[in-house]
From TrEMBL:
<dbReference type="InterPro" id="IPR051135">
    <property type="entry name" value="Gal/GlcNAc/GalNAc_ST"/>
</dbReference>
<protein>
    <submittedName>
        <fullName>Uncharacterized protein</fullName>
    </submittedName>
</protein>
<dbReference type="GO" id="GO:0001517">
    <property type="term" value="F:N-acetylglucosamine 6-O-sulfotransferase activity"/>
</dbReference>
<dbReference type="GO" id="GO:0006790">
    <property type="term" value="P:sulfur compound metabolic process"/>
</dbReference>
<dbReference type="GO" id="GO:0006044">
    <property type="term" value="P:N-acetylglucosamine metabolic process"/>
</dbReference>
<dbReference type="InterPro" id="IPR027417">
    <property type="entry name" value="P-loop_NTPase"/>
</dbReference>
Amino acid sequence: MRGGSTFLGELFNQHPDAFYWFEPLHNYQLTRRPPHISPDFYLFSQGSESSTLTSEELQAHLDIVTKIFSCDLESLPMYIFADDFFTSWEVPKKMMKYRTCMDGTPTKQTSASGAALGKLHNFNRIYNLTPRDLRTNDSAIQRKIESTKDVDFEKPEKVNFVFPFKVRSCLHLLEEPCRTSKVIAIKSIRFAAEFIPHLGNAIDKVIHLSRDPRGIMNSRSDRDPIKRVKEILCDHMLADINSRRKQAIQNPNLFFPLKYEDMASKPLQFAKSVYNFIQLPTSNETLGKFVALTHQKKDNGPVGTSRKNSSATASAWVSQMVPWKKKLVTEACAETILQYGYT
């Protein structure tokens, strides 16, 4: 979305008491929508004031998030682990042992299961099963594959016939740090604020991150048509802040509203504020690692977290955005800009 959430996620990735999961709903979206569709279009469409997900899709979102918060990772559908973010990108620190295991040589049993079941014409259905479903013999797994639904998504290069059985073997290396961490944090741009009440006691705190729509659109590629900015971005933002305000009446301590611009300009101050909100202890080492990301020798790409000057990155749209685009977004998103307190 280009709103700074990956940068915010580093607060949890860098903290030794937090277990951090990056975009766990990404692959679910890919099983339901064509690749490369904007998460805003996925959650909202045609200027709707509430999410247009079906009840089945909403329940899937809630199930995935709840299972991660409870560290019931064996009950997650296998396609969650077959995500490009898991297999190709740099994973969060507490997932590195799992990633090393997954990138290693498979055991004989793992290879044998992959070779035997990979011959099935409907083997792809295995990604609708869970790691727990695979903790049985190959004959029982075959029956489960044949009885479940088809699932389709773009598979990374590492996702082959052996992959599901490697997940079965390596998953304990994710479960252990999850269960021993004081805080479990999920970063997601695919979870609308209106979904949060459905989580009940499964969630304690929510950090609602925002960024000036003009800054977001300046950072996005031309693939997202700027003339449709209201429906592809600002309606979603407006729906989220309206839902947050309604929920805050009943639960005033649930949300921490945070502007990317504030965090980027004063990273130490707002890092301390976020840690205090979620009741995580701070240390000079942890804070130093996060603040260091804002003063690197060079930026590490458009979706990276390291910046030469994070404050300059946040406000770059002011000088970089061509006048007609700036005027278009300002007018189309006037209500959103007002409600979030931008000028």
